[in-house]
Design a protein that fits this description.
With 146 residues, this protein is an alpha+beta fold. 25% of the residues lie in helices and 27% in strands.
């Protein structure tokens, strides 16, 4: 401001008027506050286990407790008779600190002699599937079966 009460660029300041420099400062402060909140609020946990480790823990639990079901079979039995054999397994980490592990094995059985016609499918074999779901606590490795 000059001695005459005018701003340097020649305008007389109006009471309550905010200049562009003040607006810029307010916006910069607001941006820093919002950025700080975004960083502070992103509390997604970082897993201790890898996906492979979570799957391995669930598989070990399945075999240790002798749980029935063929969801962890990765190869068809050597005696044959099975077609279209497939196995899948996966794990997904949740924000609550748990891994949800799923395994599924399915195959077709060529021996239809003791199964009713209702279960036979058009290709001439019986479809059989074995799904499993386990929950693995990331912090403790404790397993529960879903």
């Amino acid at each position: 401001m000059t001695q005459s009460g005018r701003l340097r660029h020649g305008r007389v300041p109006v009471e309550g008027q905010v200049n562009s420099k003040t607006i810029f400062i307010y916006l910069a402060v607001l941006a820093m506050v919002v950025a700080g909140l975004a960083i502070g609020c992103s509390s997604a946990p970082v897993p201790n286990l890898t996906e492979a480790e979570a799957i391995g823990i669930a598989r070990s639990y399945h075999y240790k407790h002798e749980i029935r079901g063929g969801c962890w079979a990765t190869k068809p039995p050597p005696n044959g008779g099975l077609v279209n054999f497939s196995h899948t397994e996966s794990a997904s980490f949740k924000a609550s600190g748990i891994w949800v592990v799923t395994a599924r094995t399915e195959w077709g059985n060529m021996d239809n002699s003791n199964v009713s016609d209702i279960r036979k499918i058009a290709s001439g074999y019986i479809s059989d599937e074995h799904p499993c779901t386990y929950v693995v606590d990331d912090a403790t490795g404790r397993v529960t079966q879903d």
